[in-house]
Amino acid sequence: MSFRVLPTAQADEPCLKIAFPEPVQSEGLDHFYRLVMRKAGLCVETVHMPNARALMAVRHGEVDGVFAGLDEFGENVGVPVVRGTVPVGNPDGLLVIKEGGVSALSALTNETVGAWQGVLWSEGMMENYPHVVLVPGGPEMMMEMLLKGRIDAMLINGHSLGVLGGAPEGYVASPIAKLAVYSWLNAKHEALLPQFDEGTKMLREQISELRKK
């Protein structure tokens, strides 16, 4: 994959600090992200942190935005933010549970369900369910806990499950939601949104090309 650096991004310009999920779900994704944003005319520095930490970092001005967040992000961050108009992705929200078990949240009874801490869609879906374990280590930790029997099921997005190799043997993944994911910026950077959107568009195009190979 090659990129041509455009002269619109000056070496001495300040860089936007953008929170990236920790752990990063695709090797090299944040590297390509910086390159396409530079091509779009922006200097971007990626900062790896857990989802819950990213929300607080935007709230307290420690970062200028986040790479990926649902619509609920804007409602919960507590400071003025603007959403990119180009979606980062549109994965399924999945319930992964043993074959022969339930396939809907409404059918859960006493199963222990893992949810990625700081991910608003999964936490929101489980807010009235008493047997939830919030997992700070993300998909990898949830998968490990599932295989060791520490949880009976987990909520995960389709992209993250694909990176992990899909549902493990003996388990099934049932779609329970459709997730529109966007990037977000502090509202004080709203004037940069066109370049921000252009960078996101180029990243999606590059990922799409890689998947075809």
Sequence stretches where pLDDT stays below 50 over 5 or more residues? 1-11
Mean pLDDT: 88
Large-scale geometry: globular
Task: Specify the helix fraction band.
Answer: 25-40%
Number of strands: 10
For the biggest β-sheet, the strand order reads 2-1-3-10-4
Question: Would you tell me the structural class of the helices and strands?
Answer: alpha/beta
- Quote the beta fraction: 15-25%
Give the biggest sheet: 5 strands, mixed
Write the H/E string, N to C.
EHEHEHEEEHEHEHEEH
User: End-to-end span in angstroms?
Assistant: 12 Å
User: Can you count the helices?
Assistant: 7
What key attributes describe this structure?
213 residues; five-stranded mixed sheet; 7 helices; 10 strands; globular
